What we know:
The chain is α/β, with parallel strands linked by helices. The chain contains 13 helices and 11 strands.
Amino acid sequence: MTKVSILMPVYNAEQYLAQAIDSILNQTFKDWELIIINDGSTDSSETIISRYKDNRIYYYKNPENLKLIKTLNKGIDYCHGKYIARMDADDFSFPERLEYQVEFLDNNHDYVMCGTNAIVIDGNFNKTGKIRNLPDDNLLQVNLLFSPPFIHPSVMIRREVLQKNRYDEDYKHVEDYELWCRVARQGKVANLQKDLLAYRWHDTNVSVLNNQLQEEMKDRIIREQLKRLDIEPTDEELYCHKITFRLYALGRKQDISVQQSEAVSAWFEKLLRQNKKIKRYDRDDFKAFLWARWAVLCISQKRYSKIFSPAFASYHPDVLSQLFELFFFLKNK
């Protein structure tokens, strides 16, 4: 059996497609199959794909444009590898990506998925930034309560898990976030702390073209995640829940009033009370995560004296240890 199936949907990707395919051909890990599905492209994508003669590349063509979610679900059935790796037609996998991810999943049987860090590139392959996500399962489980902590085209998932947990068409533009929430209930998840993907950011990214709808759908997922804590937030509480991940809008810092800051603290206290009752997340990790988000809020508003005195503060050594690790991570993010 093939070890890794790489699932790559293609739609009018002629500009960067060859770079994406070449990046798979140049992997140090060789036991793979590349599943390319042309979703009704009208450019020269098919011509580019036809140039490749490697017998590990399998090409399929949708009779019409099915859109991303249906194409991904269709592609899962074409994958025969033990693991399924995602790849987009405009991104670039660094040579050791598959090797590192396979090694991790082979050696950690209780983990069902792992992503990686990435650099961000423009259309000319110039580095314009970086993406750093938390590495460890406990904190990633908490992070999913607030935002998606994985880079979609960087993930590798056990095939049997993805076969039973398909992308949901009701979550257009956030289908990955919704999927991660379900997958993370099946076992542990991780992010390898290596830059193994070049993620291309341009004006045609989904998050650029569909920002408003994407945010509305993220709110829906967050509300569903909060229900697992038996909480149905008001609109004000949802604002408090999201604000530390939304401090900059279109490059502009949002000013938060003292009253709003107090409301965020009260909301975090409510989350901690509910978690103490339901025991959904590790208590110390949850408290440290919320405290780190509180610190982000305080620093953004230059209220430095408030960082170490939220109403929900705990000076237990385990909380403080995790908190300072989170500070270090955020500092280097």
